[in-house]
């Protein structure tokens, strides 16, 4: 119920945004969007299909056709699922296309980013409100925006959602864990240095989380530093390290607190 309300208000906001845009010509309805995606799919994978066609000739048993259909079905389901999660909306506007990329973390909608793309003479990002520390133009290049606009938007959405999620985790750490001191973080939330206090003897552990893969919500490296040089190598602390690698940081700290590992 709550989710529905959030979605409805989000939708209303987006709708207002669209309607208030003077340049708006067509709001793409979901059915049309699917057609558009399908036709984009076709264009992008024409070459692949030609290859597949040849393979089919070789291996034309009913079983393999069924398997292919099942694979295609799964592929389509994944695609729809992905688009559902990332909540990308398109509309035509002026010379091009405006994509709205919604970010969310743990069922909470966060910022929505807009990217306007001119379609002619070649695809070009004209306006956007993506933060400057997200490498928009190199993402466009790496994901071949010219030939595969959807892959570009999916990649961008991954980066934006991971950033929004890491930022939200940092906010939750500050809100929920008053005894944890955040010493350092950066705008991309790809580094987090915290001072953890151990119960009893009041000694502290410096904990560094390093999010090298910017499309992920979880760190790729965890590092402990302590006066007791042996501590980070103790098997228990290795387990705490795994915990921090596998669990969003605010939740990992909750477990460590319950466990009386930290104050
Ligand atoms: C981040 O972690 C990787 C792998 O553990 C390491 O090589 C790199 O030096 C770390 N960077 C920072 C800034 O800590
Ligand atoms: C983390 O380390 C503490 C202290 O050594 C230990 O008691 C606890 O079991 C460890 N946590 C996990 C999840 O293993
Ligand atoms: C800490 O938590 C882990 C996993 O939740 C558990 O296996 C471990 O026994 C706990 N340690 C203590 C000291 O409570």
Q: Can you tell me about this structure?
A:
With 263 residues, the chain is α+β, with helices and mostly antiparallel strands. It folds into three domains: 1-55; 89-164; 177-258. Helix content is 49%, strand content 23%. It has helices at residues 2-20, 30-44, 46-58, 62-86, 136-142, 149-176, 235-246, 249-258; strands at 24-27, 88-93, 96-105, 108-118, 124-128, 181-185, 191-197, 204-210, 221-226. It has a five-stranded antiparallel sheet. The protein has a four-stranded antiparallel sheet with strand order 6-7-8-9, covered by helices on one side. A hairpin with a 5-residue loop joins β4 (108-118) and β5. α5 packs across α6 and α7 (235-246) packs antiparallel against α8 (249-258). It is globular and about 65 Å long. It starts with a helix and ends in a 5-residue tail after the last helix. One 2-acetamido-2-deoxy-beta-D-glucopyranose is lined by residues 191, 210, 212, 220-221. It comes from Labrus bergylta (ballan wrasse). Residues 1-22 form the signal peptide. InterPro entries: CENP-O. Keywords: Centromere, Chromosome, Nucleus, Signal. This is Centromere protein O.
